[in-house]
Amino acid sequence: MKNFIKYISGFLGILFLSFLFLEIILNISGILYRDIRKKEFMDSNKNTDQTVTIIAMGDSHTYGGNVKYDQTYSYLLWEKLRAYQKNKKINLINAGVCEYNSSQVLYELDKNIAKHNPNYAIILVGSSDFWNLINPNEKSSFTIKNPSYDAEQTEIKQRIYGKENNIWQKTKSYKFFRLMILNIYFKKAVDKMEKEFIKIDDSSLMPITSQIFMEMFKKNQHSKVIEYSLKLLKALPPDSIYYDKSLSIFYAISIAYQFQSKYSAIEIAKELESILSQRPEIQNKEFILKYINYFKERDKFELEAQKRLESNLIEINKRLRSKKITPIFLTYPSEYKIANRIIKKTTKNTDSYIIDLESVFKNLLLSENKEKYFDDDEHINAKGHRIIADEIFNFLKSKI
Prior knowledge:
Blueprint: H1 2-29, H2 33-36, E1 40-41, E2 51-58, H3 60-63, H4 73-84, E3 89-94, H5 102-107, H6 109-116, E4 120-124, H7 149-161, H8 172-193, H9 206-218, H10 222-235, H11 241-244, H12 248-257, H13 265-278, H14 286-296, H15 298-322, E5 326-330, H16 337-349, E6 353-355, H17 357-364, H18 382-396
Parallel strand pairs: 2-3, 2-4, 4-5, 5-6
Antiparallel strand pairs: 1-3
Helix pairs in contact: 4-18, 8-9, 10-12, 10-13, 13-14, 15-16
């Protein structure tokens, strides 16, 4: 009996130490970094009262996309500036939010200014204006007035990871094993999608929007992304957050649409209408209703989106300057031609600073493969972020 108790105690001790070791490794290595991403970089070691504060605002291209926080251009820029400027404290805030459009950046601008009191503001936004219909400032036939969209992402996170009801559920190890199990489950579900209708819940959907769709984008399987997204909208439960809180599925359809020729905009609108007719319980879900209109009237929407982006950029510039904050606009490194054209036009008309990343990366790609700097069709990788940090550093170093 004593040997048995000794054996059980030893086994439990080894198990505990194994989990403890895993927890330490997960925290140190940055796995699940999206959950622990650091966004404020403060220079607290220098013995000086002089401080320069920079805020970077925009969408996932500023947030960092698929790279770790210490590989983002904001963090790399912070490191370069604080090493270069020995006599001043350099603080840099990454206020980028995945999927944000210019209306959302404008809506949160005053809050960010009041909170951080920056000297410089780096703005890279506009690509999402052509698929993200959220507009906290007003509502139209296309836009969804939802000021709390960012706050609602907490509920999305809880449905993915589960609520943190105890100490175990708060650990990175729990999230690691949960995601591993979800990945195994969903890969099996994806295999079934080719042949049969499946049912799925919110917690098991995350792997497809964050990983499997990403692989499809890399392989240029854009029509397949649309096909699978439509199947998912048929399979989700009526109370799913993906109907009225998360744009992930509509994002996938909208982005994939631009890179394929199998589906026309009208065909996608008809598919969405068909889903509504088959599922009366979701007929009042605003997201799907607005995206039907978005695909039905693409030309009209694009004109409205272009005018709104230009107006928002002008207002962002105006508010920053009124607070004596120097705005620095960036164009996108990827080929968002319409957004980049409007960014260039606005900065020219308002005599604002601009760093033309579109031209920088276009020149690089004359002699390099796109895969060297880009993870997928749109987001840059760690090397790409380093290029952006270098460009902004070279621009700023004589000004701070």
